[in-house]
Design a protein that fits this description.
The chain has 286 residues and is of the alpha/beta class. It has 8 helices and 11 strands. The chain has a 7-stranded mixed sheet, with helices on both faces. It has a 4-stranded antiparallel sheet with strand order 2-1-4-5, covered by helices on one side. The chain is globular, with a radius of gyration of 19 Å. It binds adenosine-5'-diphosphate (ADP) and magnesium ion.
Length: 286
């Protein structure tokens, strides 16, 4: 747990239980000349170090908007987001985002140059150290042999791995992933989920992961925040650390998936659902 630096004040007293990222009663809006779109309404959650925290909800419920707010691209109209007690006001190298579009990799740079680029652009490391760091993370994602390849020669799954290596190489306090595997075919997607979990076992990074797939949420997350349809409000938080890819298709896994589906979509029946649930560690929000 990170103690505050001496001589620094933090906006909240730092206790042993201080969250890494706190999202506190956050409402987010888009303002166009014609109208105001409320994307999320008074959403709160806390992410602890080494959590694999998933935001799950139907399309348009404000998942991407929440992720962008955590990254510092959007400011809440209500509430506050804090990273280790410090208010998030702008993007920073301590929060790195991996998006769905892997063609975000500039095609004129090799794989290694792509991974080095943010390290150099942010002046985090000098060239030689950046190269070493890039190779280290490329090895972790199994792409050491492709360091000098160009992105167009890689499969979708390999591009996804480059994007993950590039993000991890920055050694952010939290890695933010917005439906990173949604564009991949089903088998590659499953493989990437597995690799992400293996990588987490090894590196123990903190992850905020957005998906609209219940199955993916159960596999990837240790905690899942369920959001209502537009505008997104917190429906419930579910602990899902007991599941991984080996649980897929299992009876318990299927039952959890069905219960989550009910929590997400049975409007007004949350109270009844709560009685039916045998999650011991579920918190229902209204
Ligand atoms: P999700 O990622 O859960 O699918 P988003 O966060 O992308 O949802 O969007 C939440 C809501 O905000 C949606 O109703 C969407 O139409 C709206 N929205 C998203 N981006 C913009 C924008 N740039 N301008 C106006 N409205 C937007
Ligand atoms: Mg989205």
């Amino acid at each position: 747990m990170n103690a505050p630096l001496q001589g620094h004040t933090v906006s909240k007293p730092a206790t042993a239980a201080q969250a890494l990222l706190s999202v506190d009663n956050v409402s987010l809006e888009y303002r166009t000349p014609q109208r105001v779109v409320r994307a999320t309404h008074q959403v709160s959650f806390e992410i602890d170090p080494a959590d694999r925290f998933v935001l799950l909800g139907p399309s348009g419920c404000g998942k991407s908007t929440l992720l962008k707010a955590a990254a510092g691209f959007i400011q809440p109209v209500e509430g506050e987001i804090r990273l280790q007690g410090q208010r998030v006001e702008a993007p920073g190298p301590d929060r790195i985002v991996v998006f769905q579009e892997f063609d975000q990799l500039p095609p004129w740079k090799t794989v290694k140059q792509n991974v080095m680029f943010p390290l150099l652009a942010s002046r985090t490391l000098k060239r030689k150290d950046a190269e070493e760091r890039a190779l280290h993370y490329l090895e972790k994602v199994g792409l050491a042999a492709f360091a000098d390849a160009y992105p167009h020669t890689l499969s979708g799954g390999m591009k996804a791995r480059v994007a993950i290596a590039r993000a991890l190489a920055m050694q952010p306090k939290i890695l933010l992933m917005d439906e990173p595997f949604a564009a991949l075919d089903a088998l590659t997607r499953r493989k990437m989920q597995e690799e992400l979990l293996l990588l987490w076992e090894e590196v123990r990074f903190t992850l905020l992961f957005v998906t609209h797939s219940i199955e993916e949420a159960l596999v990837v997350g240790n905690r899942i925040l369920l959001l209502s349809p537009h505008p997104g409000r917190v429906r419930a938080e579910v602990h899902s650390h007991q599941y991984d890819l080996h649980s897929l298709g299992g009876v318990e896994f299927q039952a959890s998936a069905r219960r989550i589906h009910r929590l997400l979509f049975d409007e007004g029946e949350a109270a009844q659902t709560e009685r039916e649930l045998d999650f011991t560690d579920i918190r229902i929000a209204y």
